[in-house]
Amino acid sequence: MSSKIYVGNLPYSVTDSILESNFSEFGSVSSAKVMMDRESGRSKGFGFVEMASAEVAQAAIKALDGMSVDGRSITVNLARPREEGRGTGGYGADGFRAAQRADVGYGNGGYGGGRY
Question: Residue 47 and residue 37: Cα distance in Å, rounded?
Fold first, then answer.
């Protein structure tokens, strides 16, 4: 079981040190990081906390999920692993995928080749 926790719907005023101090009440915190926007330097409103053990992480999740912080109800749960291979648009690891769709291309109908 993982000890990495996702914390969402954070107020923009929350910093790494505030996040760490809130979770340290439940046990040893290995790391606490609020995700920041590269361009503006502002908080994105979510972060991750890594606890020393899975049991401590579960205790923190039970106690803090739904808690109100500066008028916002925060979401606290186990962090899911990052999804690999998330392409943008129609492109993936193996190139453009429109060729596998029957309703895209030429000769399948009206001017756009769509479903007519």
Answer: 12
CA atoms 62, 14, 11, 69: torsion sign? positive
pLDDT on residue 108 = 55
**What pLDDT, in 10s, does the model give residues 29-45?**
999 999 999 999 999 99
- Any idea what DSSP says for residue 100? G
Number of residues written out for the chain: 116
Interaxial angle between packed helices 54-64 and 16-24, expressed in degrees from 0 to 180 and rounded to the nearest 10: 100
Can you tell me the distance from the alpha carbon of 42 to that of 27, in angstroms, rounded to the nearest whole number?
28
Q: State residue 101 phi and psi, 5-degree precision.
A: -95, 135
Q: How confident is the model at residue 84 (pLDDT cuts 50, 70, 90)?
A: confident
Q: Residue 25 — left, alpha, or beta (φ > 0 → left; ψ -120 to 50 → alpha)?
A: alpha
Cα–Cα nearest to 47, from 82, 86, 83, 76: 76
